[in-house]
Amino acid sequence: MESKLPSVGTSIFSKMTGLANAHNALNLSQGFPEFDAPDRLKSALADYTTAGHNQYAPSPGVASLQQEVAALIARKYDQVIDAQAQVTVTAGATEALFVAIQSLVREGDEIIVFDPAYDSYRPAVELAGGKTIHIPLYAPDYQINWQDVSDKVTAKTRAIIINTPHNPSAKMLKQADFKALKALVEEHDLYVISDEVYEHITFDEQPHLSVLRDAALLQRSFVVSSFGKTFHCTGWKMGYCVAPPELAQEFRKIHQFVNFSSFTPAQLALADMLKYEPNHVDELAPFYQQKRDQLVAALNSSRFKILPSEGTYFLLLDYSAISTLSDVEFCQQLVEEHGVAAIPLSVFYESPCEDRVIRLCFAKESATLIAAAEKLCRL
Description:
GO terms for molecular function: kynurenine-oxoglutarate transaminase activity; pyridoxal phosphate binding. Its cofactor is pyridoxal 5'-phosphate. By secondary structure, the protein is an alpha/beta fold. It has two domains: 12-37 and 280-377, Alpha-Beta Complex (Aspartate Aminotransferase, domain 1); 39-277, 3-Layer(aba) Sandwich (Aspartate Aminotransferase, domain 2), CATH 3.40.640.10. Helix content is 43%, strand content 15%. The protein is built from 15 helices and 13 strands.
């Protein structure tokens, strides 16, 4: 059978986790927490399951969770939205991204993405009959040149996908970036898909500048968020998408045939968590900043060049002073010979990238971070 995605193979995350398991290595590659979800959340899930809340939820989401998401947006971003009409609960952020892309992209449309880019964007665009236009960003600052973006806009351009805080670079878009983005959207009648799954994990008191803060920009946008990232429960695959009512309506037409509805007792448990423990969201940034700082301090004596991490739970290391191997080869050597699994950045680019940079995940217990740093400092 002819493949619809001939260039797609096993993801780098699966490959590196498989290597880590095979070599009993410390896994700082795949982005998932080593610690568990909050006790209250787990207890609520068990309670709702035992109480019989185990059948289909409404396709857009349980009303109480939609309302708590709207309340969170009002508290964090000073934006009042219609919970029922604008919040759609999904089976993880990846489903939300896929459905948003299917809602927008038509045959022949072009979608601008920034490399290094999360690996689900391109396949979803291609399945919808579109084409991704890649704009590469490079170490150490991964700064967007908005004139380059403007030069790439054509009559076929339909949307721009942004990701902030950005995986894998750990950078955040600034006010000037949003000003330039908004100008392009208005000038060329474009849409935005804003991947904001790490929205609550920002460092050094930098605020997350969400699309949700700008009412005019939101009218042309799908904003994607992740309960899994926020509540340390990536295995639940729970996320949501916020969009203006007319876009949300189109989103839900496709969502109902992809997943129909998401895990009912988990939705109820998440609603309780947002309502009764709002401090969890507020404490995410300092919680992860402490882990970032611990790993940075432990690596300061190494030969790696540490790149600044402004958000997410990732840290980039430049290994130019250590090896001339490609980043893929270096990561394989790292796990096989030194017992630490990392992610090479070049796999997130359409065209080969010569930066010698790898990504570490610091959503791990302190003992894991220290043990990994000790191994890396020996190189």
